[in-house]
Amino acid sequence: MKDLRCKKCNKLLCRYRDCGELEIKCPRCGSVNSLTNGIHIVRPKTAKKEERAVITVRSDSNVG
């Protein structure tokens, strides 16, 4: 059996034998790890709506 570890934080995600496709989200860092035909790919986690920076521009008639 082979170990599949997160490419970002090295946490053990699973052990597998023969697998065509596998996709696991790391519970530690949130990266999505994909295994396709023996090739290990990692995608960084996406920011949640509340984590995204929002800039609000307010137009006041009293300014300027």
Describe the structure.
With 64 residues, this protein is mainly beta. It has one domain (2-47). It has strands spanning 2-5, 12-16, 21-25, 32-36, 39-43. It has a three-stranded antiparallel sheet, with no helix packed on it. The protein has a two-stranded antiparallel sheet with strand order 1-2. A hairpin with a 2-residue loop joins β4 (32-36) and β5.
Any descriptors?
single chain, 64 residues, mainly beta, 3-stranded antiparallel β-sheet, 0% helix
Brief account:
The chain has 64 residues and is mainly beta. The protein has strands at residues 2-5, 12-16, 21-25, 32-36, 39-43.
The largest sheet is: 3 strands, antiparallel
Structural class: mainly beta
Mean pLDDT: 78
Query: Approximately what portion of the residues adopt beta-strand conformation?
Result: 35-45%
Helix content: under 10%
| Poorly predicted runs of 5 or more residues | none
List the helices and strands in order.
EEEEE
| Gyration radius, rounded | 20 Å
- The overall number of domains is 1
Number of DSSP-assigned strands: 5
Topology:
Blueprint lengths: L1 E4 L6 E5 L4 E5 L6 E5 L2 E5 L21
Antiparallel strand pairs: 1-2, 3-4, 4-5
